[in-house]
Design goal:
This protein is an alpha+beta fold. The protein has 7 helices and 10 strands. The chain binds 2-amino-2-deoxy-6-O-phosphono-alpha-D-glucopyranose.
Length: about 250
């Protein structure tokens, strides 16, 4: 096998990257399959180690492969595309994809509002909040770690519910008659801490997405403040952008 053409102006590493990209995208290689070792790739393609490393880096930066220190390079799992326009629950997102949503409950407790929570939920300092920490699962695979706060007065018995198999949004709407209306969400990149990595079954330092959401009721009251850590290897986010009309009068 060579699959590189030295007369082609496209750099060798790009040609090698494209060769493996095609094999991954066609499904010939499946998520979890291992790529040959660097030395074998050098021999197969007749190129230097530096060129192979560049090709693997390019595949990794496109999210097509993942490198595991000391173990090799593997085809990455396909990512979930998550729309950012609709206020949906984890359960709804998963069922739309034909997956079974689940949760592993890590803790549930009543906590006093700290200044961060006061700011995000608009409650009084020291006010009573419910805090639920869960690992969110899709077909039993961990996708996200969620720490969620609700004002106690809005849903006082929430902690007594089965929070492993029930949708919290469904409980808020059906049991407490709260109509979730809109939410403001912030996303930023992060690196998994040792604890997050253990709970999400990834490696410490792997890329994650840190998401904060403040959810509002129709009357403007805030009902939820959620801090989530999503696996970076599993998600990509989607928004449709429209070009603003710069001179509407013309
Ligand atoms: C999403 C949101 C969380 C919300 C959760 C509710 O994951 N990021 O803010 O708490 O959905 O999910 P469910 O109703 O499945 O418990």
């Amino acid at each position: 096998m060579q699959h590189v053409n030295r007369d082609n102006p496209i750099p060798l590493y790009v040609q090698i990257k494209d060769f493996w990209k095609r094999r991954i995208e066609s499904g010939e290689l499946q998520p979890g399959d291992q790529l040959p070792a660097e030395q074998d790739l050098c021999e197969q393609h007749g190129v230097s180690r530096i060129t192979v490393k560049q090709a693997i880096n390019a595949l990794a930066s496109e999210g097509l492969v993942i490198r595991h220190q000391g173990r090799g390079t593997f085809v990455a799992s396909r990512k979930f595309q998550q729309d950012l326009l609709r206020l949906t629950s984890f359960t709804e997102d998963m069922s739309q994809r034909g997956l079974m949503a689940g949760a592993r409950l890590l803790s549930k407790q009543i906590v006093p509002a700290t200044s961060e929570l006061v700011k995000n939920l608009g409650v009084l300092e020291g006010g009573k909040l419910l805090c639920i920490e869960r690992v969110r699962l899709a077909n039993n695979e961990p996708l996200a770690l969620e720490t969620v706060y609700f004002p106690y007065d809005l849903c006082p018995g929430l902690l007594d519910e089965d929070l492993q198999s029930q949708s919290v949004y469904n409980l808020l709407e059906q049991k407490y008659g709260l109509t979730l209306y809109r939410a403001e969400q912030f996303l930023e990149p992060g690196l998994a801490t040792a604890r997050e990595a253990r709970l999400l079954q990834i490696s410490k330092g792997d890329a994650v997405l840190l998401i904060e959401r403040v959810t509002y009721l129709k009357d403007g009251r805030r009902v939820e403040f959620a801090k989530s850590v999503y696996r970076g290897d599993k998600y990509r986010f989607h928004v449709m952008l429209e070009r603003p009309t710069l001179n509407p009068s013309r």
